[in-house]
Amino acid sequence: MSGVREPGWEAPVTVAELVNAGPLAGARMYGAGENPVRGVRIVDEPSVFATVAPHTAVVLIGTAASGGWAVEMAMRRAWEQAAACVIAPAGGLSEGSGEMLAERLGVTLIFVDEDPLIVAVRVASAASRPDAARTQLVARCATRLAEAGASARRVLGVLNAELPGASVAFLDRYGLLLAGRRDAVGDAAGGRGRWSAEAVVPDEGGEVLGTLVAAGSSRSPGWPAVVRTVLGLAVAPLTAWAARERLRASRAFALQASLAERVLTEPEPEPATSAERSAATSAERSAATSAEPSAATRTGPRAGPRPGPGAEAGPESEAGRDAEAGREAGREAGREAGREAEAAAGDSVRAVVIALGWPVRGPLTAYRIRPLTEPGDAQLAYTLITATLGQVPVMTRGEGWAGWSALDPSELAGRIRQVLRSMPWLCAGGVGGQVDGLDVLAESLLGAEAAAYVAGAGMVQRADLIGPAELLGALPTGALRAPAAVVLRPLLLIDRDGTLLETLGAVLDEGGALKAAERLGVHRNTITTRLDRIKSAGFDLDDSATRLALQLACHVMLR
Prior knowledge:
- The chain is of the alpha/beta class.
- The protein has 22 helices and 14 strands.
- The strands form 3 sheets. The chain has a 5-stranded mixed beta sheet with strand order 1-5-4-3-2, sandwiched between helices.
- The radius of gyration is 37 Å and the shape is rod-shaped.
- The N and C termini lie far apart (about 75 Å).
């Protein structure tokens, strides 16, 4: 590690820190574990307690750990000496009795499965050099993150497995959970004794992709600083993950189109229940414990004498090095359990969509591009559309393409015009109305579809600006010409030059004789005279249903 460290990095390690992410990982702890650990004392008989200094981790061996009564006496003496904790071999006292004893005396009790002397060596090393112990943890996290590769799910799996004293989540720029543990979001809100840490994750362009959030309840002043450092190490893999997803999408139109269709149909995942979170955490701890090597494997042949009764445990020991392989196997089992817990849902569709930079929250506007000639390569269309609109989805719709953007309808319509000019095929474009989110985007997509059908070649029509004339004019003339002629037959029989048909269409479109006269460039009285002739043919222009049928028929016949 280099550079200036945060305050607390060299603060004494606490008991909980040793158990959660240090040399006691996988041990069973009863009590808060809030006390700092400044040293280690090996105790094999009660008389040794007279030399135990405050904030010392007491490791019981021999007669001091020979049964429930002996452990209870050691706990009482540890309380009198203000010891940080008592570490005892499993089996000397039942778990239930140990929990009750720790609660009654207010002394943290830790049960270990391996040789207590080896445990003492490791704890002494961490206590004497807390900065080195934390640096070792950070280095291990860096290695695991490198092994995880470019995957949001795997990166968060590593963080939650290697930082068991913290819950870590990856949130998108809207605050929605993408990966990790949902309880980290609520815990980060804070509370008495709670701490939280954050790290902003940018995409390759420097825009905010999301935020890593961690929360926990450790009282160690150094632990939040360690977590923040590890979160910083995870930023680069997540940025690489987003870049990889964008590259994949740019090379495979079908892939990103499929993602767009799925994100429109799949609901947002429900928050994880407390029972689910508890089950995942229990699985991690259980796997870490069950995978610890057996006593024979742990202790094995060791060079050099064992520390004598009452002796101080030094930071370096051949026995400690012999046990490292077994400890690593246990840690790996815990990490694997964490990865499995985080892998339940995999990299969600929404997580990949956020990596691609697509908008999924806030005002959204749909677009539609309709080829008027034989369409070409969809991959080329995707490239041309995203080159102008930016990171947006492109889906196949009929023989054309559709998607959505965070731009408002006016700006999006201008961008679509640029897209149409770049297309090697003659196309028309449509822009739907602005909606609040993906759950109602179908409405905007329908509007964009209708608008693209109304628009002429090389033109873009906005759904919110389509008038009756544009909508009626979009209907197929061939299918409606015969029924339109039937509706207008009485008028067509008396209209030799088409002026009556033109007048009727103008009056219905403009809503009155005055505006119709201005549109046709004739006097109002001329319009009134023609209307009298039209009414004499049997048309009741005061009837709304008749007016609608006549307006549609006029547009079809006059097109």
